[in-house]
Structure of Sulfatase:
Amino acid sequence: MAKSLGRGLRLGLGIALTWAGSTFAAQPPNIVFILADDLDAAAASKMEQVKALITDPGASFQKHYVNVSLCCPSRVSTLRGQFAHNTTIYGNNAPNGGFEGTYNKGIESSTVVTWLQDAGYRTAMVGKYLNGYPNTAPSDTYIPPGWTEWYSPNGGSPYSQFDYQLNENGTSVSYGHADADYLTDVISDKAVDFIRRSVTDHPTQPFFAYVATYAPHLPATPAPRHADALPGLQAPRTNSFNEADVSDKPAWVRDAPLLTDGQVALIDEQYRKRRQSLLAVDELVKRVIDTLTELGQLENTYVFFTSDNGYHQGQHRLESGKMTAYEEDLLIPLSVRGPGVKPTATITALTANVDYAPTFVEIASAMQPDWVDGRSLVPLFKGSTVGPWRQALMISHGEVDKGTARALRYAGLLEPDDPFDKSAQATIIPMFKGLRTADDFTYVAYLNGEYELYENTKDLRQLRNRYEGASERQRAKMASWLEAIDGTGGAALRAAEERPPKGH
């Protein structure tokens, strides 16, 4: 009651008030959510502006994971605060994935965006939405519920960064191949313009900007000004790169031959291009921070930087791609700065992309449905006392969809295949469910009856599968804990995450 009343007074009077010992700002905080595409935590750590402008003056999350390492399932989890087994979105194409599957299931009717809009926020989608949008929607300029403004590609080849169309608030606008048409820069322009107009034209109304780049997703086209940057850069040669001995791995990895010199050269080329394409994303981050500073809004705005999933490049003999249960694919960056965030804070609690929605809800004093699976990160990044927290996080890989666009004009909006993704679509990688635990174990149960178990503190690169040597008690604990989490949602799921089943 007090929380809702306090927010109403803020909006109604537009002045600072004290309620139950707390001082409220004159306006609820703004939220800027910057989401990169296929950005692993290791590559993100090289982004200088993100580090200087968000990570250093804010908090960074060291154990932040996705439930499914694939674009559309992750993005739907971001919007709904639910794991894939509750959204039922497992892939990038229909029937159980992509924009088409999401639209057909009616999932867009209730998302964090509709909840924020109901709480009085202006909202903007700028950049990549869901794979295949707007395929099968009522029109090419369809705008989902909850969005005050909308700037998202609806045609052409946005993954290439040029020659695409944007749905700009219901009007399709074509962009060509000029330097000024480079998509990351256009997304930057639109985001900054929305922020500026929100502050100047709607001074009493908070805003939420969802800013989603296509970089560094392949083909990872760098901005023309960065085409010669980072000469000679190679993918990191960790001890898991082109792993010599994979005899402990499941059959789908054991069957993979060592990478050839040509495959390694391609990985190096792609790694450099990905890093080059991130230079423009770094510049986008700086423009957003500079604009908020200029408008006097930086101290009343939360800025988040993260990715939809991780990415592997050569680890365990695998070509560039995602979808696996390995750390490179599941661990993603997350940094946040804003009111009350402790500078240079390092957070080691186990967190996930399902936590964004309840975090934004708490920031906005909004309301959310009981079926939300995630939990608010606000107590963590504000250094508050945190009650029982997640001790195990469910990870999964659903059936890879093999659907195609229903109309040729949508082909460029579908996910371009990475080399590894093509292998995955050939069913080389089996479906799996598993756990990532707070005490640093990764447990994977494949549908075909194979298993993996890694003790990540001692085996950072996951070189030794410990499942065969694990005790029956440990195996049973992991299996029963996974079953308990997988079979539920909402408060019951959160309770299951906090402790293993009795008897273990």
About this structure: The first helix runs from residue 2 to 13. The CA atoms of residues 37 and 214 lie 5 Å apart.
